[in-house]
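Exercise: predict the fold of this chain.
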Amino acid sequence: MNKNRRALPRVNSKYARYRLRTAFSGIHRFGVYALEDIPAGRMVIEYTGKRMSWAKASRVPFEKSIYIANLKRGYTVDGRIGGSGAEYINHSCEPNLKAKRTAGHLFYCSRRKIRLGEELTIDYNYSIKLRRIPCRCGARNCRKTFMVEFAK
């Protein structure tokens, strides 16, 4: 193996209910792909990482904040630290996953049947202190932009 090449990030099978892998993505850097068909309405993977308050998360530099997801009111989870691999799931304006928050956990569930080899996507749905970022999801109904939070 070339020492200059970095290894692809991995999906932790402990948190995934289906066989998944990371690979380079046409949307952004890395993506997560299905290694088998996934039926509609199923829990696919848990978004894991370091839990922190919203106040602490808001102090994370913008370029590192892309892996922080809202967990529950006042709390977030940072997928950079102890992440399951779900942190590499990219945004799409027509996602095949939806978020479900239950008992202090964040799960990504299939919105429809996902086919073998398909990239998993979620609508990031940022809501406060926003700035527009060009969207590259390629969906038929792409909004051409999505919002990310400003760093403080």
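Check your answer against the key: The mean pLDDT is 86.
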